[in-house]
């Protein structure tokens, strides 16, 4: 019987264990987690989401404080168009996080950065260009372009000296999105080095509609992509993601022709994951009915999360002066609009509630929005329940090796803590 370790992901002459840990913002997929994947011969991701606040926390910079001081005057203002990012600060924080991570890298694997186009930051082109270029400057092994179509992203880094040496991949949820990307990018004469095909059971934002995500399945989309690439004689590794929970699930995809798998949910309960320990227990405890796909993300994409996430219904004042990552090219965010509507409707109330949208930046930054994959309710079966009723957190190495070596849909439990 085959297992994941019988396969290898090939990038030119390089061979990797075909397990990639997906990017999870904001700093849920930490450097420590990504570095473990690389040490074990696979691929790990750090995330580029909200890096100025991440580096403030990790490396004692003060980007958020500086931005807040500059725009403090605007806090009561419903219009956030004036709140701009300092491009120099974005570059500095990206370089800092990437270079510190890459300096610590050991082993044969690779570390990539997940870069979401939907973080439009009140100047989509300028901020994304700086993020991509700074990550390359700082020596990242590869960039995974996520959450958005990224039709212009390759062109933003076309003249960068590392454009052809760094691995560049995209995440798509349909064959159509891939075809569109390939068409738009033909001019750069550079194919993506890999394509992550993300199905409807993934965590984070979904590339499907709120009402029809359940009609799609990862196997079918992956097969369509594999067939298309074969017909076009394009040799691009295909990496399915979303709901791949056991080594056997992964092996099944590798046997159908996938080059690797991207996984995340199992690692949300790893010691090296950025989620606070009490939040990890919420993930363990969740049952299937505690998980929903809803429309509260102001990005406009459906998002999967635990229903008891404190972010849902929270009516905090928008944090754009400190953060502002979702502000579009015109300085708008759907949460700001919802918040202002509720304030106008309840002029005498001190504490309002907003249910249709959430302040994604502040809540993701504070780990109050518990986004998760569909199979989060199975996490409790991957570990031991301890005497105090809590669940034992796992090491990333244990989870990685379980994917790599397990057969028969089995999941190895960790040694009792
Ligand atoms: C907590 C969490 C946060 C995530 N955040 C991001 C993100 O910031 N960007 C992204 O492209 N994908 C994100 N994802 C999706 C994963 O990278 C991955 O593709 C997917 O979850 C894999 O499916 P699985 O979780 O069922 O293994 C996230 C997933 C989880 C569970």
Automatic annotation (TrEMBL):
| Alphabetical UniProt keywords | Dioxygenase, Flavoprotein, FMN, Oxidoreductase
The domain of life for this entry's organism is Bacteria
Q: SUPFAM superfamilies this protein is in?
A: Inosine monophosphate dehydrogenase (IMPDH)
Q: Pfam families of this UniProt entry? A: NMO
Please verify whether the record's keywords include Ribosomal protein: no
Q: Which InterPro entries match?
A: Aldolase_TIM (IPR013785), NMO (IPR004136)
The UniProt entry, under Gene3D superfamilies, shows: Aldolase class I (3.20.20.70)
Q: What is this protein called?
A: 2-nitropropane dioxygenase
